[in-house]
Amino acid sequence: MDNVRVVVLRLGHRLVRDERVSTHLALVARAFGASEIIFPEQEDLDVQKKVEDVVNRFGGNFKVSFGGAWRNIIKEWISRGGIVVHLTMYGVPLPEIIGEIRSRNRDVMVVVGGAKVPREVYSMATYNVSVTNQPHSEIAALAVFLDHYFEGKEFYLKFDNAKLRVIPSPSGKKVVSIGR
Amino acid sequence: MDNVRVVVLRLGHRLVRDERVSTHLALVARAFGASEIIFPEQEDLDVQKKVEDVVNRFGGNFKVSFGGAWRNIIKEWISRGGIVVHLTMYGVPLPEIIGEIRSRNRDVMVVVGGAKVPREVYSMATYNVSVTNQPHSEIAALAVFLDHYFEGKEFYLKFDNAKLRVIPSPSGKKVVSIGR
User: Rounded to a whole number, what is the distance in Å from the CA of B29 to chain A's nearest CA?
Assistant: First the structure.
């Protein structure tokens, strides 16, 4: 699974109103091992800037990208052999399906939306997966999905070219600057 | 661990600005098995109403409560024998400490804040725990912590007195109304 690429497709982003939730989604995607988040509907430069600031300081190659119709993005992903996992409270419980998803060893596009995801997404997705069947948060669903998918690998990720690194501490804040 | 009570203490909530993030935190707390979220600083009736609407429809006994100084709430929790887990990107990595936290078999208060958590919280907490040492989202950190703490038990929770129940589906939305 080491060469599998995971990207996140964020549907339903609205300017200003969703800036904070979408920034959380992007930062979770990065911290938990995805390589990119795509916003097909709205080019939100504020979100992009915030995430790029984190990448610049904490390293790695995570990308925020825009554009294209979501339908085409999903179709193209599938036509290239990738699978599409749509996270929804209506889907199949994560523990029942994560083994199968992992064992396919394909690139994964994780689709996250808000309340109003078009019906078509459900039928286009390879898997509709629930992180509990209760209403909560797409941010939480994304994090828990990626944690299960990568089996905790995110706790040991190294981010290249970081300027700052946190040194885990039982009782305070330790951050080191890394000279280049 | 069946009788352990888990509550969430939300620091740094600001009216209007943080409504959505705090609502996500509360819904994650509920869906992942906590019994209560406490807002010590701001009485936000909009958040409370949104969460109570979910409880009313999807069941359970989750509570949103307000008031008290956070310092006293933490002190009282500890004096009653509970432990306090503060989630922070600077803390000890979750996989290194979750076994110990679980094995203590005590009531747990999970403290989540934003960027500006007072220094004193770090010293008062029984454990400062990181869900990766990267910046991302307190919502994601809470969900992953609770998932690991409960070892996936949240996927099998039953919520009493639900009016609606989602029936997991591979490709659509199935919701049943439950007559009472």
Answer: 9
Model pLDDT for residues B102-140, shown as the tens digit of each residue: 999 999 999 999 778 999 999 999 999 999 999 999 999
- Please indicate whether, in this complex, the C-beta atoms of B173 and A31 are within 8 angstroms of each other: no
Report chain B's terminal Cα–Cα distance, integer Å.
Answer: 31
Of residues A169, A9, A43, the one with CA closest to residue B129: A169
When CB atoms are compared, the residue of B27, B95, B139 closest to A152 is B95
Q: What is the pLDDT of residues A55-110, one digit of tens each?
A: 999 999 999 999 889 999 999 999 999 999 999 999 999 999 999 999 999 999 99
Measured at the alpha carbon of residue A93, what is the angle toward residues A88 and A99, in degrees to the nearest 5?
Answer: 115
Model-wide pTM > 0.95: yes
Structural domains in chain B, CATH included, are: 6-177 (3.40.1280.10)
CA–CA gap between residue A156 and residue A144 (Å, rounded): 16
- A132:B144 CB<8 A: no
Which residues in B lie closer than 8 A to residue A125 (C-beta atoms)?
A: 171
Contacts of B140 in chain A (CB under 8 A): 24, 28, 31-32, 139-140, 142-143
Query: What ipTM did this prediction achieve?
Result: 0.97
The minimal CB distance from B168 to the residues A91, A137, A166 is found for A91
What's the one-letter identity of residue A141? A
Closest CB from B27, B125, B131 relative to A135: B27
Contact between B127 and B86 under an 8 Å Cβ cutoff? The reply is yes
Per-residue tokens: A49: 């800037």
DSSP string, A113-156: --S---HHHHHH-SEEEESSSS---HHHHHHHHHHHHTTTGGGG
